[in-house]
Design brief:
The structure is a single chain. By secondary structure, this protein is an alpha/beta fold. It contains 17 helices and 13 strands.
Amino acid sequence: MSLAFDTENQSVDGTERSMGLNAFRPVPRISIQAFCETDAVARQISRACEDRRMAKTHAQLHMGGLERAVELFQTVPTPNLILLETSAAPRDTLQSLSALSEVCDPSTKVVVIGHFNDVWLYRELIRNGISEYMVAPIDLSDIIGVIGSLFVDPEAKPLGSSIAFIGAKGGVGASTVAHNIAWAISSLFKAEVVIADMDLPYGTANINFDQDPAQGIAEAVFSPERIDDVYLDRLLAQCAENLSLLAAPSTLDRVFDFRDDSFAHLIDVAQRSVPHVVLDVPHSWNGWTRTTLSRADEVVIVASPELANLRNTKNLLDTLKQLRPNDAPPRLILNQVGVPKRPEIAPLDFCSPLGILPMATIPFEPALFGSAANNGRMLAETDAANPIVQMINEMAHILTGRITLKPKKKPGLSAVFSKLKRKK
């Protein structure tokens, strides 16, 4: 077994990395075979294989350790990566690996997970071509971090963050909120932002930004083989100094049926091009919306305080928790709160069964929103002094990691809560 490995930034003791999971880049399309001796290690590897950052990989988990690996690879080719747990003593581990070297392809990378914190063993394994030695117990971030260090180009540009907005029900204003937050990110931080309007038949981003581009997201999705940085740049419509739009055609002259991963490559290219990608996901449930939400860095649910919204929000939270088991819950924005004469669920009562607090509670202000929509302008361009604009700016800070949402009320939110109390 003669392999070349990158051991930079590797740890000997297998302790958890300080960086969060969102700091790791997605692992490319590789094959992985894991061979475990203990349930604890097998459970963590299984969790890692289900993580969204490993979505492109093809992984298989076996119980049986080194002997099972040698037996299997006598008849089948070895994968791109072998994860191998062994409880053998250091010298026995080295001897046992010689049997694996006889059936292992030279291009295969091997990570050994042992139970001895031994520097001599680590050095000998690296000298003999093993990619990495990890000491159990290991956790999710250890596994994804090590795999990423082996297969992700360290010279590659950092990936931009993807923020997916979806309404719990049609007409709750998810697109309007998404567009205004994207505009706030681009204007406040002078950062490049791309909005992808994924509602191809009924998208409103072109209207909200007063744009009428000849091309947009449809050309990218229907010609996936052409998508690269140059082609994407041709499809983008410039909305502001740092804001670009992949507009939806908003026509019904064809049906828009897509595979589960139809938008995945487009989003990957966009994330390599700009620091922030805002995904305006339509209120529907199919393979590609499910995939888009499951792989986004942040998911934001926009809901209105009534019963159907509560049910749908609960369903989305439960489903996304299963699809994204290692990520924080989606953010929640309550919009259109305080509609005159409409029976509503109080914000705290709405959030109680969900187990999360809203990132913001936006009051019903038809004059502000209507004026902005009819003139193809953002809320901040229509009335920069309005408290809702301050809330939009606060959410832009939160979603870009510039401030952390805390339970205490913020100045922009307290005014709205006091306004709601006066209306009751």
